[in-house]
Design brief:
8 strands; 10 helices; alpha/beta; three-stranded mixed β-sheet; five-stranded mixed β-sheet; 44% helix
């Protein structure tokens, strides 16, 4: 029987909403072998056309990242899913780390995320990257734009992504628990657009505030209003 490579076992699931400016680069950076599912929340730009042109399977539904991630997961047919934001690319080292993870004997019981890299030369970006790496190492809580690799059995066991407009990544990691998540050595390179738009300090403070409020029991709908989504 012919061996199936790790990459051929992955559905890359990308939620989109008017992501035409970033999606093409994200899709172009995907390696041969992976399958791609774009879960769109009602884009009015060329997002879905870009996805179709790249050979991705496109599903459409209600807006909301948690809802869109869950919709994409329902369409997945491969053993592994990599949930990836539309403005994030995985480095070659990241794909190598993903392949090694899938070949671990205990891989099915462990979700994994990559190391955050922000697409900006500013020193503030390096500080944020180091802070996020520390947080992942000591609390097991990555950002959603670090990607999440998970086997379909584990995904089903924790109930999948919740239908939330924000904090869906925090809730997923809460469901997994620190013991069922590992950080990988490769990078997920994400756009710095939101930090540039709001400012490095303001955006970082807003991120931390939203996470803290969610952990204190504030609803995701109220947090989404605060965030401006």
């Amino acid at each position: 029987m012919q061996r199936v490579s790790p990459l051929e076992q992955i559905d890359v699931i990308i939620p989109t909403l008017n992501a035409a400016t970033s999606l093409a680069a994200t899709l172009a950076a995907l390696p041969p072998g992976v399958a791609v599912i774009v879960s769109d929340g009602g884009s009015t730009d060329h997002t879905t056309a870009i996805a179709h042109a790249a050979g991705a399977r496109v599903v459409t539904g209600p807006r909301g990242r948690g809802c869109q991630l869950a919709a994409g997961a329902r369409e997945a047919t491969r053993p592994w899913s990599l949930f990836l934001h539309a403005d994030t690319t995985v480095s070659p080292d990241g794909w190598a780390a993903i392949s090694r993870h899938i070949e671990r004997p205990d891989a099915r019981d462990l979700a994994a995320s990559l190391r955050l890299e922000i697409d900006d030369p500013a020193w503030q970006a390096r500080v944020i990257e180091k802070a996020v790496a520390w947080r992942v190492r000591h609390t097991g809580l990555p950002y959603g734009d670090q990607g999440l690799l998970i086997h379909r059995d584990l995904y089903g066991a924790v109930g999948g992504y919740p239908d939330l407009p924000l904090m869906e990544d925090v809730e997923m990691i809460r469901r997994l628990g620190k013991g069922r998540h590992v950080g990988l050595s490769g990078e997920a390179r994400t756009s710095a657009a939101r930090w540039r738009r709001r400012g490095w300090i303001r955006q970082t403070a807003l991120n931390l505030t939203c996470i803290s409020l969610y952990r204190l029991g504030v609803s995701a709908d109220r947090i989404a209003k605060l965030y401006g989504r």
